[in-house]
Write a structure and sequence with these properties.
globular; six-stranded mixed β-sheet; seven-stranded mixed β-sheet; 20 strands; alpha/beta; 2 domains; single chain; binds NADP nicotinamide-adenine-dinucleotide phosphate; 457 residues
C-alpha cells in the first residue's frame, strides 16, 4: 500500500486531506518530463523566460486568497501573514524576471585569448526538498532564480503541506509554462535519497533542519551533485547597555513571534548586557504576555498554533528541561487546554550553556534571555552556537553596532536595530551548522549554473 501523506489542521486537529504517495512509475514519468522541459526551457531567451515568470506572479496574485487560506489551514500561520507570503513570492518572480538578464550576462575577461569570457549555463533538473514553515516562500525563493537561469525543478515538499505543494504546481500550469517546468512529487522523506541518486537530478536545494540537511548532503555528496543547504538557526539579538529598552523589547518580541515563532531567522536568544537586564526582562515579559494567540483565521491573532502537535511536544520538552536545569520561567510555558497545537508566548531567563534553550533551536514562541557582562561577553555568547544563520545588534550607537555586526558576528545575515528577514535583493544563507550556499540576489542565481569559461583564439 502507498504511504499516506496526511494534512491535519493544527488549529483543531482535524484531518483536511490524505494523499497517496507517488509510486515509482509516476516519479519516473515526472523526471522524464522535467528533463524534456529542460531542453525546451534552456533554449528560450531570458526575456521569454521572464515573461513566464511574470505570468506565474500574476497567477499567484489571482489565486492569493485561496492560497493564503490553504496555507493557514495546513500549517496554522496567521492569515494576514499567509497573504503577505504569496505577495512576496510574486514580487520575487518579478525581481528575477527583471534582473535575470543582468545577473546572467556574459562577463568578458581580458586574457591572451582573442576573446575570453564567463558564460552562465543551466545545470538541469534541480530537486527542491522544502519545509512547511513558509510553504510557498521557501519554494519560490529557490525556484525563481533556478528557473530564471534555465533549470527546471521538482519539489518534494514537507508531508504536512501537500495541498500547498499541489496548489503551486497548479499555479505554474496555468501560467503558460512549458509542461514539466515545475512539478510536485508527493513522497515521504524516506524516498528522497533514491531521488538524489537518480541521474535525472542534476542538483539539490534543501531547506529544513540540520539533521535532515546532513543526510541530504551525504547523499548528494556521494553522487557528486551540487547542493545548497539552508538549515536551522538560533539567532542571537544582542541588547547593548545604551538602548531604549522599551523599543528594544518591542523589536525583540516582534522578531521572536515572527511566523508564530517558527522561522529559521526568528529571534531566538536575547543576549542582554547586565546594565539593562532587569528592565528588559520586565518589558519583554509584559509584551509577550500581551500578544494574542488563537484562531489564525482571525486577524486579531498575531500567533496561530504550531504546525503540528509533535512539534509542540518537542518545544515544551525543551522548555521544561531548561527550567529543570535552572532557567527561570517569566511567562507561558504550559500546554493550553483544548484541541490544536497552540503554545503560549513564553519567556525564560537565567538561561545558561548546557540548557536546551541555550544550545538548541527553539522553533516556537519562546524567548530565551541570557545575561552578558558587557559587549565582548555578549558577542562571545552570540557566537557560542553551532548555528550561524542570522543575528542582530541593538544599540543607539549605530557605528559601534554596525562594526560588531559586520566583523564580529559569526552569521550569514547580520542586522542592526532591525528584525532579521529575507529580501529578494540580498543574499540569504548561513555558516556553521546553518548550512552553505546562498539564496536570493545575484549570489542565489549563480548557485545552480555552470560558470563556464569560454576561450576563443
Ligand atoms: P525537516 O524535518 O528537516 O523537514 C524539511 C524537509 O526535509 C521536509 O520536506 C521533510 O519531509 C524532509 N526530510 C526530513 N527528514 C529527511 C531525511 N532524513 N531525508 C530527506 N528528507 C528529509 O524540517 P522542518 O521541521 O520541516 O522545518 C523546520 C526546520 O527548518 C528548522 O530547523 C528551521 O530553522 C529550518 N529552516 C531553515 C531555513 C533557512 O533558510 N535556513 C528556512 C526555513 C526553515 P517530511 O515532511 O516528509 O519529513
Amino acid at each position: 500500500m502507498a504511504d499516506q501523506l496526511i494534512s491535519v489542521d493544527p488549529t483543531n486537529g482535524e484531518t483536511i486531506a490524505s494523499y497517496n504517495s507517488y509510486d515509482e512509475a509516476t516519479v519516473s514519468k515526472a523526471l522524464i518530463q522535467a528533463r524534456k522541459a529542460f531542453e525546451i526551457w534552456k533554449a528560450m531567451s531570458l526575456k521569454e523566460r521572464g515573461t513566464v515568470l511574470k505570468n506565474i506572479a500574476a497567477e499567484l496574485r489571482r489565486q492569493k486568497e485561496k492560497l493564503a487560506k490553504l496555507a493557514t489551514k495546513e500549517m496554522g500561520k496567521p492569515i494576514q501573514s499567509s497573504r503577505e507570503e504569496v505577495e512576496k513570492c510574486a514580487k520575487t518572480l518579478e525581481y528575477y524576471a527583471k534582473e535575470g538578464p543582468k545577473f546572467l550576462a556574459d562577463e568578458i575577461v581580458k586574457t591572451d585569448a582573442k576573446k575570453s569570457y564567463v558564460s552562465f549555463q543551466p545545470l538541469g533538473v534541480v530537486l527542491a526538498v522544502m519545509p512547511w514553515n513558509f510553504p510557498y516562500w521557501q519554494v519560490f525563493r529557490a525556484m525563481a532564480p533556478a528557473l530564471t537561469a534555465g533549470n527546471t525543478m521538482v519539489l518534494k515538499h514537507a508531508s504536512n503541506v501537500s495541498g500547498c505543494a499541489l496548489a503551486m504546481e497548479n499555479v505554474i500550469k496555468k501560467a503558460k509554462a512549458p509542461k514539466g517546468l515545475f512539478q510536485t512529487l508527493l513522497l515521504p522523506s524516506s524516498k528522497v535519497e533514491a531521488l538524489i541518486n537518480d541521474p535525472a537530478i542534476a542538483a539539490v536545494t534543501f531547506t529544513g533542519s540540520t539533521v535532515a540537511g546532513s543526510k541530504i548532503a551525504e547523499a548528494a555528496g556521494r553522487n557528486l551533485k551540487k547542493q545548497v543547504l539552508e538549515l536551522g538557526g538560533s539567532d542571537a539579538y544582542v541588547v547593548l547597555e545604551d538602548v531604549d529598552v522599551d523599543a528594544a523589547a518591542e523589536l525583540c518580541k516582534n522578531g521572536r513571534l515572527l511566523n508564530s515563532g517558527q522561522s529559521c531567522v526568528a529571534a531566538k536568544r536575547f543576549v542582554v548586557v547586565k546594565h539593562v537586564l532587569k528592565e528588559f526582562e520586565k518589558l519583554m515579559t509584559k509584551k509577550m504576555e500581551a500578544s494574542p494567540f488563537g484562531d489564525p483565521m482571525d486577524t486579531k491573532n498575531k500567533i496561530g498554533p504550531l504546525a503540528r502537535v509533535d512539534l509542540r511536544e518537542k518545544l515544551h520538552d525543551q522548555v521544561t528541561k531548561s527550567i529543570e536545569l535552572g532557567a527561570k520561567l517569566l511567562c507561558g510555558g504550559y500546554i493550553p487546554e483544548g484541541t490544536g497545537a497552540f503554545y503560549p508566548p513564553t519567556v525564560l531567563t537565567n538561561v545558561k550553556k548546557g540548557m536546551p534553550a541555550y544550545d538548541e533551536e527553539l522553533f516556537g514562541p519562546v524567548a530565551a534571555i541570557i545575561e552578558a557582562k558587557n559587549e565582548t561577553d555578549a558577542i562571545r555568547i552570540a557566537n557560542d552556537s553551532i548555528y550561524g544563520l542570522g543575528g542582530c545588534i541593538l544599540s543607539k550607537n549605530k557605528a559601534r553596532a554596525e562594526k560588531l555586526a559586520a566583523t564580529q558576528m559569526d552569521a550569514g545575515n547580520c542586522f542592526v536595530n532591525a528584525i532579521v528577514h529575507s529580501d529578494a535583493r540580498l543574499p540569504f544563507g548561513g555558516v556553521k551548522h546553518s548550512g552553505y550556499g546562498r539564496e536570493l540576489g545575484i549570489f542565489g542565481i549563480r548557485e545552480f549554473v555552470n560558470i563556464k569559461t569560454v576561450f576563443v583564439q
